Model the fold of this input.
Amino acid sequence: MGVSLTKAVQWTSASSGTGKLEFTPMNESLLKEILRFVEQFNSQHPQEAKHVFEEPLQWSTTLVASDFKTDYDISDSDVQSHEKDSEGHPLLQLSPPNVYARSFSQLSKLIHLADDKKLEEVRACLEGNRDPMVKILGPSLTSVLQKGGAHTEVKEEDQGEDSKVKLFLLLQNMDNQLLNKCLKEISEQVSLNPAAVKNEVELLKRLCSEGEKRVLKSVRYTSDYEFSNGCRAPPWRQVHGEICYLVIEPCDTETLYITRSTAGAFLNGGIKQEQEESGYERTSDTYKDLVTLLTSRSPHFAENINKQDFAVQELPSTQKIQHVESVDAEEQGQPQRSYEQQEKNVHEKARQQHAPNKADGEKKYEPCPRWKNLGLMPPCGKAEEKKPSKSSGGETSGEIQKKKLGPAAKSKMKAEFSVSSLPGRLSSQKIKTSAGAVPVDAFSESSSESEEEEEQPERRAESTTDLPSEYWEIQKVVKFLKGGDQTATVLALCAMMDFNLMQETCQLAIRDLGGLEVLINLLDTDEVKCKIGSLKILRKISHNVQIGRVIVDMGGLQSIVKILDSSVKDLKALAAENIANVARFHRARRTVRQYGGIKKLVKLLEGDVEVARCGALALWSCSKSTKNKEAIRKAGGIPLLGHLLKSPHENMLIPVVGTLQECASEESFRIVIQTEGMIKDLVKNLNSENDELQMHCASAIFKCAEDKQTRDLVRKYKGLKPLVSLLSKEDNKELLAAATGAIWKCSISMENVDELQKYKALETLVHLLTDEPEDVLVNVVGALGEFAQIPANKAIIRKCGGIKSLVNLLTGTNQALLVNVTRAVGACATDMENMAIIDQLDGVRLVWSLLKNPNADVQSSAAWALCPCIENAKDAGEMVRSLVGGFELIVNLLKSTNNEVLASICAAIAKIAKDKENLAILTDHGVVPLLAKLTNKTDDRLRRHLAEAICHFCMWGTNRASFGDAGAVAPLATYLMSNDKAVHQSTAMALYQLSKEPNNCITMHQKGVVKPLIHFMGSDDEMLQEATAGCVRNIRTLCLANRQAQDQ
Done:
């Protein structure tokens, strides 16, 4: 909304203040992000949402006065909000076609009112307010935002009220997220092109020699800075596919300022540095490449280019590049240097960072701090070009390492590694992942695991000038680790252990200086001490997710899995701990499974206590993948975990219960957990004093309590009381979410509800309806829906103020929460006093509006909730008629393909049709043929409510004959064969009403309904008796009348 809006968004005109947003995928993506931000702002940041803008946001809207309901004063076509600022001005004002909004609270409400035109409103708002930050915060704070980037500290004179400062930070964070999303898409779009452009520029630089063969005077970039995706253009120009900007001096014409983009090359307005916005505009045709452009502009170049040995070929630095990756210190194809040379150049590089850039007498421009925050800084701040340094005649570090290690390690190093101390370097033969590069793994194999996480962008050190002393000390240790004998290696490993390896600087230093390759290769040696030392270091640095990814990229995880077969306990335990740290993303978990790691880890559960604990830790990490869960089950892991669940040690119990609760998401595991008697142990550990253990136990019960037997076991082993006691730990949100989830699922059994109420669980749950995260609210509201099935509890919810809180939650966007809220509101609405409060709070309209939600579960849940609301409302008929567009909405849902939606809508229509005026309106809306089309459905729940709706519609006009003409009678006759008694009752009542039309009686008689109807006359259900008797009487009366007519 700051830089992202003014720079990254694509406009139809480059001139500020004019133009419209282009209809491009990038714009649509950004608009949806902004829409989501505004929609959720009021609920997530209520205080900041009330802040009054410095100037109102104004745009041309599609909304009209009739779209506004409560909270607004409506006068003809004008609308004003009840909310006003300190001077009495309304915070939202509509004067068609313009709307004026002065707070995020009103913006959020307006977006909700826009319904299916939300995106159009956001687009119009941004087009009408090209710089919304100035209007929202005022020019002073906006200037701070534009100058300082993401890490700017707001001065006291700029802060004003606390809410204004917080709003400033929220908008700043949103701006960063938009730019990050934008750059991610850009990186995917231009992932291959920057390398080719770099190759092309290097070839042109060869033509800048002196003498007769000179074709060009000079070729240079406008910026020395290269982003991690290979581009040199600033982020907001990368949106347009621009890669870099060049200044080329031909021998015979004026200097050319050229833009190289994914579409080709063209002349620009004269970019000498990135700050000159006007220079970006294209001033020539677009050419396919730089050579073609230069040929058209410089006769000297065109004449001499063919004389040069200019066969287009790849430079050594690009021969093995699979995708764009920034190379930190030298061209990738250059020969490796000895460690002494590398160390020297690192120090030289640090000194060069302080020296001013004197090339061409121009100032060197540094990137905006915002780019650093987005992860765009290259590793260790590399310069534009590096001259190749001649390799010394001595051995390379890779050769030294080969001599030190055994044969297996040597062969592995030869195949997989080219040991170098270049920051962040891997062998060009390996698949690499870095910021701005799409991982090859994502394309080489499609994972079927549902828990795939996105590869996180790699964070690099911003500059070598700020490196701490530990960096240089680690550099010396890595030197000995690479070049020493066995004794020196062990000593170097011990020295490295003395560093604070949990500090990110030390972790990345080991990676950047080539230590990680050596540590991984040591895993393939025969020396136990070397392996233990390497695993201990890897165990600590692998807590860093980026290090874990590099370990997987280098093939280190396979080596760690092999060590699980070792006879040395310490090795097995360390290997398992390393797997636990590394297997935090799907590719690592898949690698463990594919190399037999799951079976080996399960086997560890049978051994030494410490080894078993480490094995459980590794299985916990691996169990986040569905295929791994199945592999654990097949390997016999569940009974072994059940045995360890009886351990008295908390450090053992946490990974064991953690693994069980991950696996409990699968039904087959839940059955085993129940049959193996683990519920008793889970309940026992709820009384632990360790919050993490309690959380995992509650989470396991939450997932297992889907089954009635498990719910009964929790009650049997007295697990409900400790679950209620956990509700008091409101500061621990993860524990609170697990506890409320367990209570929700346990309360599905009414016996558990009675038990829970002994500990005042209901009052505590109502208290949790405000100021809690959505994952907690979903569970709390789900539990209230179950508690409200008991009449006495409905009064308790009302007395504790729960009705108002529930109605307020109807305006949210979380689908799972909306399903549970509507169910709870519907359950409470069966109480007349509760219904009066719901009606007073406009709850019925809010529930009805959820029928517009695209989610079928929300639609059906809302329709079910409407049934008791309509039935218990004081003036239900008038209330329904007052809802603008309500009839059209509910009738349209009869065309749904979801049986649950259809059943709930039929039930709601049956309630609405009890009012004669509403019945007439629905008939005019064409409900009769829609109901008739549904009679061929086989779902008993749908059949029951469909027959009930047909029964009510038969009481108006000629609807009985219309149902017969539409072919609804014959299918209804088959409903009598159902095994559901409720279907029998509603069907008999429908047939009774239909039988009042003679033609329908004939159809019924032909379909053989008389025999089952006579059978149902003996039912204990009086309503069924009367309906069947009445239907048979009507059929019999028609038959007698027909016989008498024939006799005459």
Summary: The chain has a mean pLDDT of 79.
